[in-house]
Amino acid sequence: MAETGKRRISILGSTGSIGVNTLDVVNQLGGREAFEIVAITGNSNIALLADQAKACGAKLAVTADDRQYAALKDALAGSGIEVAAGREALIEAGARPSDWVMAAIVGTAGLAPTLAAAKRGADIALANKECLVSAGELFVKAVAEGGGRLIPVDSEHSAIFQSLEDDQHHAVERIVLTASGGPFRTWTREQMAGVTADIARAHPNWSMGLKISIGSASMFNKALEMIEAKHLFDLRPDQIEVIVHPQSVIHSMVGYADGSVLAQLGCPDMRTAIGYALTYPNRTKLDVERLDFAKLARLDFEAPDEVRFPALRLARTALERGGVQGAVMNAAEEIAFHAFCAGRIGFLNMADIAEQVMDEMVGFGAAMTMDDVFAADAEARRRAGDIIAQR
Ligand code: NAD
Ligand code: MG
Q1: Where is the DXP reductoisomerase C-terminal domain positioned along the sequence (predicted)?
Q2: Which secondary structure element, helix H or strand E, spans residue 279, and what is its range?
């Protein structure tokens, strides 16, 4: 807590979809009267970052992009808000003393700043799934050693977190991650082969950032979530199930040894999960749409198709192989995702490239330190880049 008695919070990735929703929730829960905003960070959208900093009274505003330092400094001239830029500054944003940190930078870029926050013992509201996919046990250990709490924000993991009963871990048989199936749920592979990033980014239920929207279309997002779940909830691979549920109303479920299944339901709006992470273990009133069951009428389920959506199979392979395979899968796919968005490779090539790099790097051992994680990540990026360059 700050001397003022306000809760001190930082938002890493404040200009993104999760970041904007987080500031909305913060405002709903009292804004500057209730919270001291220690630091916010963005990347290229300097105008939004500056507007946010002024509106929420942030102490520090950081852009990840060095070249934007002057622009941000200009935009915040006379505001008294400290300005910084670059990788080290992002880590500093995570390291500045605060009670709660929203980790909502997209991709592996979020790992180092989130780790800095975890190590000093902040409660981590984790939207960035790549932290757990890449660094797994090491990340969980860093949070535990820091002494803060790790509170999932990804809607599926928030649902599981909310459906887990205290002290009943021994009785958890399985978790069931729901997946909307994305815009290509009923498409053939032939149809998917020709899609562009603009087509793939149109998600039927959720409004989200570009990477996760494309990841929902390929189900690579669900692949990341399977690995995320393993580390968050300490599960064996065979305890992690995926079911396609096109309405995205059931956000995920926990199955217990007595046959009971507990679920969390809600409208597809990330503010519920963000609000829960901010007020946990309490609940508070949020202005979000309520479920209308009569209007909804039905909930549908389908088994996922690992032939049309090979990302799910890759996640299972990564879970079974262990070691740095999660980091490798994530890094290779991130490079492939950028190549797809640039029109250099097709939609289906993303999984092919991730699989090839995973197979090539199968001999890499477990990560003993974060440096091992960063090395595997860099090697996987290099190999994925080579494969794309040779096409
Ligand atoms: P987004 O693309 O909308 O926003 C990403 C944020 O990261 C922005 O603030 C951007 O400025 C910043 N950023 C981008 N590149 C950066 C870099 N190289 N260095 C530092 N900062 C950088 O993404 P999003 O949809 O808000 O998702 C953020 C994270 O949350 C992702 O890991 C995503 O998987 C996860 N997530 C998102 C949702 C959702 O509904 N949007 C749901 C669950 C989980
Ligand atoms: Mg999710």
Answers
A1: 265-382
A2: helix 270-279
Q: Write the DSSP assignment of 153-177 as a string of letters.
A: -SHHHHHHHHHPPTT-GGGEEEEEE
pLDDT tens digit sequence for 302-342: 999 999 999 999 999 999 999 999 999 999 999 999 999 99
Complex ipTM tops 0.95: yes
C-alpha closest to that of 153 among 258, 307, 13, 338? 13
State phi, psi for 76 to the nearest 5 degrees.
-110, 15
CA distance 391 to 319: 29
Candidate of 108, 212, 220, 271 to mutate for ligand 1, largest count of ligand atoms within 8 Å of Cβ: 212
pTM over 0.95: yes
Q: Give per-residue pLDDT as tens, 23-64.
A: 999 999 999 999 999 999 999 999 999 999 999 999 999 999
d(CA 56, CA 34): 11
The residue whose CB lies within 8 Å of the most ligand 1 atoms, and thus the one to mutate among 105, 220, 248, is 105
Q: What is the DSSP letter of 343?
A: T
Residues in the chain: 391
Kindly state if the Cβ of 206 falls inside 6 Å of ligand 1: yes
d(CA 89, CA 87): 5
Q: Catalogue all structural domains in the chain, each as residue range(s) with its CATH number.
A: 7-152 (3.40.50.720)
